[in-house]
Structure formats: structure tokens, C-alpha cells
Amino acid sequence: MSEGVDFGNRECLEQVTARLIQCRACPRLTAWRESVAAEKRRAFRDQQYWGKPVPGFGDPNARLLAVGLAPGAHGSNRTGRMFTGDASGDFLYPALFRAGFANSPRAEGPDDGLSLRDLYITAVCRCAPPGNKPAPEEIRACQDWLQAEMDCLEKLQGIVVLGKIALEGVLALPMYAGLRRKELPFGYGAFYAPEGLPWLLCSYHPSRQNTQTGRLTAEMFDAIWQRARLQLRQPS
To answer: N or C: which end of the chain has fewer CB within 10 A?
Structure first.
């Protein structure tokens, strides 16, 4: 957490989290996340799975928000923390560490001592979906949770969206309703700064599908976080 943390922001986020983790709005996702948590993967058989909706994680004073797609079945659905315990997190957190947004490049579980600086991480869908593909109506059902977290982040200036679906989920929020979405296409490095709203910076998602094929390299990912840092205004 940042020094001089605003306890109002932190308490606001804690209240959102307390409500979020009780959500059972999507029957398909509820059944899937709980069945995965009960059956477990052999490598994690001795661990207690989270098996609930996954809240955001990070600095309550964050000026930057990162938005991903959804928890991994044996990653965040197991650990209860965004991008923790899977290959996507293994690629993400070293980049955040290099950019100065994280105190460690390692993300193994909620008790690993990892903390974020000036960054909050969340997703457009909070429950692990079958095949890593939430349905459009399931993403829409999570919109209020994303907006609620953003409302708590009073210093928010910009958003890094990790993937096309994350961009579409953010643009579907009421606060962006006045924009022409066709004029804001997704693409690596695409940057949009609508007046009076948090700016948007696009990156490919750090999934294995992208990182192991070279579609997203460490150098490309570092460039995203470096640009985000440069884009943030200095506090007055």
C-alpha cells in the first residue's frame, strides 16, 4: 500500500469485496468455480481453493487500474487474488516489478507479501469460466462490480486494458456511454484519452496463448507499463 493511504478508499473497496464474494448471479459460473474448487488439480490437491468470485487487488490510492478478463480455474480461483498462481501472473508481475508498480516479481498466494504501488488490478468477469470464455451476459452481470471498484479509486487517472474483451467491458460502463465505440478499436499500444474520463491504454492479455507464441513479448509488455507510468500526472 502507498504511504498516506486514504482509509476511506480502502474501506470502500473492502465493502465492495464483502458483497462481491457472496455473488451467485450467474448459475453456470457459480457451478463451475465451485466444482473446480471441490475437485482440484492434482498438483494442488492439498490446498484449499478459494472457489468464490475474485475481488480486485492493489493500492487504494492507485492512479492506474489494470483490467483483465477473468480468473483462471486453478490460478485466481484457487488463490483468491487476481493473476496469482498461474502463467498469466507469472508474466504480469515481473513486468509490474520492473516498472515499479509491485514490490516483488513473484505472485504465489495471498500471504506472499506482494503489494502494489499506485496500481489496482481487477477483471471484467470475477468467476472462473469454463474454457476461459465467459458469456457476454456473464460479463454484463459483473459490470456493477467493476464500476463499484472504480468509484472507490478516487485518484484514478488511467486504465490498462489487457485484451479486447477487457476493453469492451470497460467501454460498456455507463461512464463511457457517450463515446463511439467503433472509433476506439482494440490494438496493442492503442491509446485513448476521452475528455473528463480515465484514459485507456491497450495491451494483449498476458495469457500463454499470447506469450508462448511471441505475440506478446516481455519487451512489448514492459513498454506498456513504462508508457502508463509516464502518462500518469504527478500529484499536485
So the answer is: C
